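Section handout, structural biology tutorial.
Before the tutorial, make sure you can parse a SMILES string by hand: atoms, branches in parentheses, ring closures as digits. In the record below the ligand is zinc ion, and the chain has 286 residues. In the tutorial you will relate the predicted structure tokens back to the input. Do not try to memorize them.
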Amino acid sequence: MLPEIRDPTVSVEEYLQELSVNTVGWSMTEQLLGLLPVVLGSIRKRYGGGEPPEVRIVKSAELQAEGGPYALRIYIGLLEFALGLRYALPPVVAELEGVTIDASSIPGAFFLWAVAHEQFHALRRHNNVAARYRDPAEGEAALSQAIERDADLCAVAEVYRMNQWPDVCPGASDRQVKIFTMYCLFWAIRTLPKPIGDSHMGTAERMWHVMVKLATLKADGSPPDFQCQEDDTLEMFRALALCVVQCERAYLRDIAPGEPSIVGDLQYRDRDVVQLWDRIYAEMFR
Ligand SMILES: [Zn+2]
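Predicted structure of the complex:
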């Protein structure tokens, strides 16, 4: 007998047809799912991975996406989290004042980040890397956090590239696009349910790594300034840190009064994870 299928899946088209057009959030759902072909195609083009994966929507409320090189399964819970993402409006970040921002780009950034993160697990062969570097004496936590960090950071670059599209932040400077990308990802990382177990880094560390990644990326796609050798990188990092602090103040004021602030934890603490990631980094390229 075939095993029972626990959660049925449907195609994106079937899912949109099943949802009534009158459902709250229908057009935003359509917009989010509409990002997939563009984004998956662009990731594949740069990573030389052939056809984009087939997308299936899983009818389950779990906040999750999963998949390999040929198939990507997006859970309804992930879409619902994107649609219900809580955030304070952009003026909380001083440098974004005057920039016209489409409100859908905030859930869009989270959705893209989550989907790209899953794709990078497959494209950067994280299963092989995990099998090769697994060391029972060291435990699993550092290795899995280094791999999650890799997927997170590749996905950050995708969100930044999307936010460079001229219709996302019309007229914004590259500095403002980076700050806007940090602003979008702040709300996603800050409001995600706390992970169970220690396979992901904590909120403050995840945020810190996003700040560093954005500061080192180059607008024109040339190699990032990983070693922070240029003054511009440091200056950008300061602006991103200020953005995070301004968002955190608004978060504690409007969304989660009484929660402890993450600002004090925003520092480069987890050297073990970073050193391990440096060691296994080369493995992740095809
Ligand atoms: Zn992951």
